[in-house]
């Protein structure tokens, strides 16, 4: 029997309390992605072993749900809201400005992995349209930046492309316009902001 890699051992430890036949596949996938940011080949293999499934079954579930990733994410992701309220208020122009500034396609990232853009589904905060979410996995930062203009969207994308952290971008009112809603922001960022 070959030695287990450190990555496989970490995934196995994350899933130790899950058992076959108990409908734990989605919970397992969410745990692993929350910890590592994506679902690697090793993670798929260990998850399948732990839950008594074929790796193809696990892969099929991963590819069915848009929220799961098979590749490492960008350091900071910008999620573009594709809901009707955002689209009606120039959301398409916001998206195009961000993509042009970053030089990547939708659901892609910059060559250096600093920033990426992903499609987001409406989260029900339509009064903030047009909006994006700024997510940084390393710091567990997740905030909505609403009331965007194309100019502010370009400033946001430039800052992230050039290496700014999510917290630094969110603290800059020339980018956010003060329209921030978040649940994991530093105190210096959330002063005066509304929390979801």
Topology, pairings included?
Elements: H1 6-14, H2 25-36, H3 41-51, H4 55-64, E1 76-81, H5 84-88, H6 91-102, E2 108-109, E3 115-120, E4 132-136, E5 141-145, H7 150-161, H8 166-171, H9 173-176, E6 180-182, H10 187-190
Description:
Strand 2 (108-109) and strand 3 (115-120) form a beta hairpin. The protein has a 6-stranded mixed β-sheet with strand order 2-3-1-4-5-6. The protein has 2 domains: 6-64, no CATH class; 76-190, Glutaredoxin. It is of the alpha+beta class and 196 residues long. The chain has helices at residues 6-14, 25-36, 41-51, 55-64, 84-88, 91-102, 150-161, 166-171, 173-176, 187-190; strands at 76-81, 108-109, 115-120, 132-136, 141-145, 180-182.
Give the oligomeric state: single chain
Considering the protein shown, what is the CATH homologous superfamily of the largest domain? Glutaredoxin
What is the general shape?
elongated
Spatially, the strands of the biggest sheet line up as 2-3-1-4-5-6
Q: Span from first to last CA?
A: 50 Å
Helix content: 40-55%
The helix count comes to: 10
Q: How many whole angstroms does the radius of gyration measure? A: 18 Å
CATH class of the largest domain: Alpha Beta
**SSE string:** HHHHEHHEEEEHHHEH
By CATH, the topology of the largest domain is Glutaredoxin
β-strand amount: 5-15%
Q: Under the CATH scheme, which architecture of the largest domain would be assigned? A: 3-Layer(aba) Sandwich
Q: Quick one: how many beta strands?
A: 6
